[in-house]
Structures are given as structure tokens and as C-alpha cells.
Amino acid sequence: MLQIAPQTFLHDWYARTIEIVDLFQPDSLRLEWGIQAAEFNPYNKQLAAYFHNRAESGHQGVVLTNKGHAYPTGTAVMDIERGSLRRIQPQTLRLRLHPETHCSRVTQRVEEVQWL
Description:
This protein is α/β, with parallel strands linked by helices and 116 residues long. The chain has one domain. It is 35% helix and 12% strand. It is built from three helices and five strands; from the N terminus they run αβαβββαβ. The strands form two sheets. It has a three-stranded parallel beta sheet with strand order 1-2-3, with helices on one face. It has a two-stranded antiparallel ribbon with strand order 4-5. Helix 1 runs parallel beside helix 2. The longest helix is centred in the first third of the chain and has 18 residues. The protein is flat and about 40 Å long. The chain starts with 6 loop residues before the first helix and ends with a strand.
């Protein structure tokens, strides 16, 4: 049976992750499978925006990694653990997050980066 995370859990998860970003200013943030659930979608967008904007304010380069398809292709580094892709994947980095998620700075700053 599929469990749906309650709003109290989602809010707590988001608040704790933001606290980690603020206290430790990590240069990478790795997110696991659970965030693919639909109820995480608004929090995923807000977290990506916050993480990148916080890094920008401190002039720090950062990497967001995830497993699966929680973020659109090219907006986070895909983490492949104990597996492989059938072929090399050409990627275009496009950060398309909605202004309602408080990420307009990210959207304006990162429009498109071609992988070489």
C-alpha cells in the first residue's frame, strides 16, 4: 500500500533541510527516492530555489543531486547508484521553477547551460 506523507511531515522535512543548508552551507545536497512522491512537489521546488539562492548570496558553487525524476531533467544531477544508463545522456541545464515558489532569482540567473 502506498503511503502519503502528511503535511506535518512535509513541513518538518522542509524546515529541517533548510536549517541544514543555513547552518552548514553545504556545497552539495543529495536527496533520496522518497521525494519523488507527488506531495513533495511544491517543497522540492522551494528547496531547490532556496538552496541555489542561498549559495548565490554567499558566492558558493553548489550541486543538487537526486534519484529518479523528482526534478525535471537537467535541473539536478541524477544520482545513479548501483546501476547505469544505456548510453551517455546529452543534457541541457534549464531551471524552470515558478515565481510562486519564491525562486524568481534562480529563474532569471540560470536560463540555459549546455553540457560539453
